[in-house]
Amino acid sequence: MRRLVLLHGWGQDKRTWQGLLETFGNEAVAWDLPGFGAEKVEEEWGVPEYAEWVERKIKKEGWSRQTRLVLMGHSFGGRIAAEIASKQPEWLAGLILYGAPCLYRPSWKIVMIKHLAKRWRWFKLIKRLVVSSELADADKKGLGKVFRRVVVYDQTEQLSTIKVPTLVLWGEKDGAVPVAMAKEMNSLIDKSKLEIVEDGGHNVHLSNPMLFNGIVKRWYESI
């Protein structure tokens, strides 16, 4: 038996996956990550801490030992999924990294920060981050420090340890994370397939759900 575990991106919550949840039915599950939706974050976490939280959630689900999971992460959620996959858990059957900035490249970081800043209406505050590398006071909930830790976290070495079939899924016109990163990630991960959605942006699952869901389902069924 297999299940698809969906990890949302920064500034979103589990509701963003409604289309895939309907497509996969009971075979898919999505959670709010700490700091988003209904989940509160009590610590100044980075990617490793979020990965540990997801692993605890998976364990708590009580799925049988025969259950094999496919992790799918969008953007920030993809970083978390990659972190877990790099540990090579025995229950992992596959991985989907969708618009996930797993590599720290300063020039790309600035593009991503500006994109997310506009989304969160933090433009003036985060613009200051680009100049001073300070985000301690950007968010009253503490997510400013979390964001800063996440953005500078480089997973180049972890990607080369991933051994499960992996789909690197990207929008051709992703304004947050350049397609060049997708190509580099694809070259680092064994057994990976690169799928670039023509004219797609950073949120193809929302702008073209029918196309997106079809791509995910076909790959999921092929492994």
What is the CATH architecture term?
3-Layer(aba) Sandwich
Helical/strand content category: alpha/beta
Overall geometry: globular
Strand and helix order: EHEHEHEHHHHEHEHH
CATH class: Alpha Beta
Percent in strands: 15-25%
CATH homologous superfamily identity: Alpha/Beta hydrolase fold, catalytic domain
Organism: Candidatus Collierbacteria bacterium RIFOXYB1_FULL_49_13
Domain AB hydrolase-1: 4-209
Protein name: AB hydrolase-1 domain-containing protein
Describe the structure concisely.
It comes from Candidatus Collierbacteria bacterium RIFOXYB1_FULL_49_13. By secondary structure, this protein is an alpha/beta fold.
Could you explain how this protein is built, in words?
- This protein has one domain: Rossmann fold, CATH 3.40.50.
- 41% of the residues are buried.
- It is α/β, with parallel strands linked by helices and 223 residues long.
- The chain is globular.
- Helix content is 44%, strand content 16%.
- The protein is built from 10 helices and 6 strands, in the order βαβαβαβααααβαβαα.
What characteristics describe this protein?
223 residues; alpha/beta; Rossmann fold; 6-stranded parallel β-sheet; 10 helices; AB_hydrolase_sf; AB_hydrolase_fold; AB_hydrolase_1
